[in-house]
Amino acid sequence: MDSGAVFALLCRSDKNHAPALAGLRKLQKQRALPVLTNYLLAETHALLSARLGPDAARMWVRHNIWPVERATEEDEKRAREILLSGRGGDCTFTDAVSFAVMERLGVDTAFTFDENFARYGFNTAETV
Fold first, then answer.
1. Which residue range(s) make up the domain with 15?
2. Residue 124 and residue 102: Cα distance in Å, rounded?
3. In Å, what is the CA distance from 89 to each residue of 32, 68, 108?
4. Taking the mean position of all CA atoms in its chain, how far away is CA 29?
5. pLDDT digits over 112-121, tens only?
6. Which of 21, 36, 98, 120 is 20 to 30 A from 106, alpha carbon to alpha carbon?
7. Cβ of 1: how many Cβ atoms within 10 Å?
8. CATH code, 11
9. Rg (CA), the chain
10. What is the Cα–Cα distance from 101 to 5, expressed in whole angstroms?
11. Stretch 12-34: mean pLDDT, rounded?
């Protein structure tokens, strides 16, 4: 999952709002849950706070129903390798942590509109 996908779900004026809802419905039909890392939780809170205000960010944290997978020290080391290799494009460290956690968990699909996930080799929201 990616913070931009969460924002798209919550903000009706976002260009990816309708595709995000469709992607979430597909995941629900598959009985799949998006997995957030603890890094992504922090990034999403910051994004929502900046764009929608701190009350909206707190509400999302309070009502988040998706599991949070804590990044391990090994995930963080792997994220550094990914980031420095350039294989993830211009991804952020948070994205690289998500890549590492997804690799560890054997997850091949990301609920995201960030092309860096596809560039790294994951299926993305459009292909869910």
1. 3-124
2. 13
3. 27, 25, 18
4. 19
5. 999 999 999 9
6. 21
7. 23
8. 3.40.50.1010
9. 14
10. 18
11. 90
**pLDDT given at position 38:** 97
Structure tokens at 7: 């924002």
CA-to-CA dists, residue 111 to 41, 73, 77, 126, angstroms: 14, 24, 23, 8
Amino acid at 4: G
pTM over 0.85: yes
pLDDT band with cut points at 50, 70 and 90 for residue 39:
very high
Do residues 22 and 40 lie in contact, with contact meaning Cβ atoms separated by under 8 Å?
Answer: no
Q: At what angle do helices 17-29 and 3-10 cross, to 10 degrees?
A: 100
The pLDDT confidence band at residue 125, using thresholds 50, 70 and 90, is low
Length of the chain: 128
Q: Which amino acid is at 5?
A: A
In angstroms, rounded to a whole number, what is the distance separating the alpha carbons of residues 77 and 128? 28
- Report whether 36 contacts 66 (CB < 8 A): yes
Residue 106 is classified by DSSP as T
